[in-house]
Amino acid sequence: MAGEVAKEETVVTKVKILKKTNVKPHKPLGKKECQLVTFDLPYLAFYYNQKLLIYKGAENFDETVEKLKDGLALVLEDFYQLAGKLGKDEEGVFKVEYDDDMDGAEVIVAAAEGIDVADLTDEEGTSKFLDLIPCNKILNFEGLHRPLLAVQLTKLKDGLTIGIAFNHAVLDGTSTWHFMTSWAELCCGSTSISVPPFLERTKARNTRVKLNLSPPSDAPEPAKSATNGDVTASVDPPLRERIFKFSESAIDQIKSKVNANPPEGSSAPFSTFQSLSAHVWLAITRARQLKPEDYTVYTVFADCRKRVDPPMPESYFGNLIQAIFTVTAAGLLLGQPIEFAAGMIQQAIVKHDAKAIDERNKEWESNPKIFQYKDAGVNCVAVGSSPRFKVYDVDFGWGQPESVRSGSNNRFDGMVYLYQGKNGGRSIDVEISLEANAMERLEKDKEFLMEA
């Protein structure tokens, strides 16, 4: 590991910031504002959501930068909320504010001409991305005085990276990739985007929630004990991050195995997501070497666009996700066949209907709690992103990305991101953050890796 860490540090120090500018919508839009709703507010104490797209090609970097900035100015006409700031009205209700006098999105231009694309596309770690993506360890709450969108365009020896930081109180993953594909469309010559964003958040939830938040201090937060809520001193264990690539064939094998003996009462065949989730949950639980009586939690950040009543369009812009939890004892989970885990996950997802969403919202609104990104619980496996997002379709005119990764923000022991595999079809990349010793065991788990 020491050699890998040293290599990452060397890569990071080669990034030089050349210029910082701001990009506003191409034409004046006047003054606009939009109230944040119950689906948005819990994320105020998360960090900015970070993505990194790594490309080969794009021969003339300066021309490419101007093309990307021109496209950004155009796409911000529709997605103008990303060019605004967070604000609060006189009652303390958070909103997104935009007017033509605001600075807009931040664009950073940088060079790392000693770095190859290949230096960034291996499967280990995220520390090498730190200087390639803006807003490291910046809380969404700080959108009161920071841009809601920051973009860094970095020239490499044989390509470039596009590092993006989005304020997570303003949008979720579905909206993130809707924005990215729309931006790419305009850069490729479209005169308008094919699917405009649906911007009326209050159609999904029209409840005014007043929050009295103070600016966060820089002091580290003490952790809460998992047993009784007492505040205890804690030091987070060192994490490792790794991508595990599952081919179409491997995904099909996992799905076939999980569906071979469906448990009584299962509502339908297990989906690809439910099957892979069970596979990952079992493997991480094995790698953690938990005691049989230790609880383990599986958390899915589920898209609620089609679950709410009335349903919202896929183009709904904002957060329309909720965390769904299922929990069991490690010994019970590992002592049962894989379809037991899949059944628990499926049941939790099926039960999360419009009524359950409404009850969750009402409960939160009666006693609003602002979560930290790592509040998912002990021994948790939490799944974000989705292989449904067409991340490799984000082509600005010089080809698809070589790799798409998440940044270092909002990571904790057990955080999992699922991405479409670069080879397309049913292949899936599984990006896992795990305590270092557990990761070492996971890397040797032949059952998880689908090795004979």
UniProtKB/TrEMBL annotation:
What UniProt keywords apply to this chain's record, in alphabetical order? Acyltransferase, Transferase
Q: Tell me a Gene Ontology molecular-function term this record carries.
A: acyltransferase activity, transferring groups other than amino-acyl groups
Name the GO cellular-component terms: cytoplasm
Q: Does the keyword Transport apply?
A: no
Q: What is an example of a Pfam family matching this protein?
A: Transferase
Q: Which Gene3D superfamilies match?
A: Chloramphenicol acetyltransferase-like domain
Q: Which family does it belong to?
A: Belongs to the plant acyltransferase family.
Instruction: List the PANTHER family.
Output: BAHD ACYLTRANSFERASE DCR, FAMILY REGULATORY PROTEIN, PUTATIVE (AFU_ORTHOLOGUE AFUA_3G14730)-RELATED
State what protein this is by name. BAHD acyltransferase DCR
Originating organism: Nicotiana tabacum
Record gene name: LOC107803843
